[in-house]
Amino acid sequence: MTFADMFKKSFLEGFTSTDINIYTAAVAMLAASFLAVYVFLVYRILTRKTFYSKNFNISLVGIALITAGIILTIQSSIVVSLGMVGALSIVRFRTAIKDPLDLMFLFWAIAIGIICGVGLAEIAVLLSLILTMGLFILNHIPVAKAPMILVVNASSLDSEEIIMDVVKRYAKNSTVKSRNMSGSSLDLIVELRTSEGNKLVRDIMNLPSVVSASMMTHDGEVTF
Question: Which pick of 11, 12, 125, 156 has the fewest CB atoms within 10 Å?
Answer without folding.
Answer: 11
